[in-house]
Amino acid sequence: MKRSIYTHLFLILMLLSIVWGVPAFAESFGNGKSIDAVVLWDNGKAYFFKANQYIRYDIKADRMDPGYPKPINKETWPGIPWNEIDAAVNWDNGKAYFFKANQYIRYDISADRIDPGYPQPINNETWPGIPWNEIDAVVNWGNGKAFFFKGPQYIRYDIRTDRADPGYPKPINNKTWPGIPWMDGIDTAVNWGNGKAYFFTGNAYIRYDIGADRTDSGYPKPINNENWPGLPEIMH
Hints:
The protein is mostly beta strands. The protein has one helix at residues 5-20, and strands spanning 37-40, 45-50, 53-58, 63-64, 70-71, 87-90, 95-100, 103-108, 113-114, 120-121, 137-140, 145-150, 153-158, 163-164, 170-171, 188-191, 196-201, 204-209, 214-215, 221-222.
């Protein structure tokens, strides 16, 4: 019996999976940007942003809180001058940073409002050593370092000295980020506070083991209600 075209395609995908060391179907989940930004708060909640909406996610219950999504505005996020967010990160000092286009703001978590004097431009004066004026994603690694991503590159930032480490930017590849299937860029990333970080691109995500410094097996997976209950509510 002759093999069907689907059988041939399946065999090709399996061969690519072996050669590349990552699931060859990763890009099938990655059409379009489904999550703009995510930030872990200090109250056991995470906030996911997409276009002009956001949801609050309960980490312990592992599901979206009732009453969401909500609009991004000055009532829900006092002082934020935009209704869309490109990237966000908790700096672990009571402050969070939000980035949009070539600007950023510093947000006081306990006061629940933007600090005075913001927004400010993203440049080498405000973020020493960062070579871009726009940011795709930021993740606080929990060890005094943060990673900033833009397109196919990333930099490592030293939080204590407040500047990028020497030798950056570097390319995003399987050597610098073992197991990450996306070399063209990351949509958003977050440290989940349990030794794992999540990276999102398109409609897929991976779980990254911070201690082992590699992607956990079995990823990427699709962003759906089974894996992230309630999250697809803002992905349309």
